[in-house]
Structure formats: C-alpha cells, structure tokens
Amino acid sequence: MYxxxxxxxxxxxxxxxxxxxxVKPRFDAKRSLPLLVILxxxxxxxxxxxxxxxxxxxxxxxxxNKSATDEKSxxxxxxxxxxxxxxxxxxxxxxxxxxxxxxxAAGFKAxxxxxxxxxx
Length: 120
What we know:
Blueprint: E1 2-4, E2 21-23, E3 32-34, H1 35-42, H2 49-57, E4 61-63, E5 66-67, E6 74-76, E7 80-83, E8 88-94, E9 100-105
Antiparallel strand pairs: 1-2, 3-6, 4-5, 4-7, 7-8, 8-9
C-alpha cells in the first residue's frame, strides 16, 4: 500500500512536495519508517525503488544484524542499519525537533545499563 505524501506523520523527514505517494511501512506508521524512505530520502544511498529492491535482494543491507526482507519493512526507533559494501552503520534516532534522523555510529556494539540511581 501507499500513503499520500501530504498525510505522512510529521516525524518523517521527507519533503511534502514531490511525488504524490510514499510507501507505507508494514506496521506502525507513526513510530516507524519504511526502509525505502531511509535509504532513498535520508541516506541518499539509492535513487529509486528499483535500486533499493536490488540491494535488499543481494543482502547488502542489515537491520539489527539481520538481512532486510523487503523495502517496506519497518525500522523502529534505535534500530541499527548496516550498509555492508561501504561498511557504515547508522542508528535511527529522534532529533530535537521530533523528526527521525539517521546518525552514524562508529560500530555496532551491544551495550547495557549497569546501574541506575535516581536522586529525589
């Protein structure tokens, strides 16, 4: 399915003017972005949907260290995107304005909180 470009959530960092339709993610359109929008609009790695399908089919893109299945797959907040040919890692985060942004990560490392204290 698709969404009209004017009706997408405000958190998506895409231009409101341009083509009429944008791909709809598999689930939860308000809290996630489709992989095609990230590759084409944000990272500018591919130019069109056909190139995105080809790179995903060749298993050159990993989402959370698993190969991506299709261009409509949802990428949630704090998910990591690995571009295998260029050896680059990106993490999906929110900017100060409330829009999604892909920030470059030096390398994917699993981390966790050891202790958390709250002073009242």
